[in-house]
Amino acid sequence: MLDLVLQRDWVKMEKKASKILQKDRSNSFANYAMSEMNLFKAKSKKTPASQKRYLSKTLRYYKHLPNSQFSELRDSIHFFIREHALDSNLSKDINNQYRHWLLVLFTDSVPKFQVAQVKIKTIEIDSTQISDELRLKLLKTAKKLEGVPYKYAGTDPKKGLDCSGFTQYVYKSIGIEIPHNSSMQSKLSENRIPLNQLQPGDLIFFGDWNGNQPRVGHAGLIFAVNGNDITVIHCVTGGVKIEGKDSSWDRFWVNKVLFGISVDTLAHK
Fold this sequence. Notes:
The protein is of the alpha+beta class. The chain has helices spanning 2-7, 10-23, 28-44, 48-62, 71-85, 92-106, 112-115, 133-144, 163-172, 182-185, 248-251, 263-267; strands at 155-156, 160-161, 203-210, 213-226, 229-236, 239-243, 257-261. The strands form two sheets. It has a five-stranded antiparallel sheet with strand order 6-5-4-3-7. Strands 1-2 form a two-stranded antiparallel sheet. The chain starts with a helix and ends with a helix. 35% of the residues are buried.
């Protein structure tokens, strides 16, 4: 079962998991497999109605899983739901459903004012504050990707990117090869840098702590630092976005920051 999950062979996985669940409805790995598969489908769908339908199927199996296990899946579902709960482009009914799931499953809430349409101003690169040519080139590549749509497991900007596909592509543009997996990217260096010491271009990781072990569920890049105001660029459900003050960065992501890794560390490996 684990091999099928890792290989993402969805058809075989669904058949095997369904067969197991017919005999044992509470089987953890079968419920995990079905939940993971439907979350993949939810992320892959383009219409809000389809996304919500497959997320509902995801939760149908997820509710049978013990809270102490499969924490990465839990974080992935949490991030997905919260992104949609904050999406002002969704219909009121769909938005309310996501906010309901957010509150019931994760005791997390989104006040109504946060869902209101907000005019986003364009954020440009402040090249006067960046003397490092490598960082500047990296940020220019990242900026050009703003607006590229989200695609689960995506690595091609023409087709869509996911969070680690975005960071991988940007770093490759400056000759640094990193894996297409946020958790693996977070292990590229033992030198974990706290948020207040990160600089533009550095990798930043999000998730939760299990004791002293990080559970990484998302990755992005520091885009700008202006005193205590930090701006990030990352690929979320709505695509590649630059976010800082008065955005979901302030309302959610900053509370999920684990640590970062410096460009310099990876450039000199």
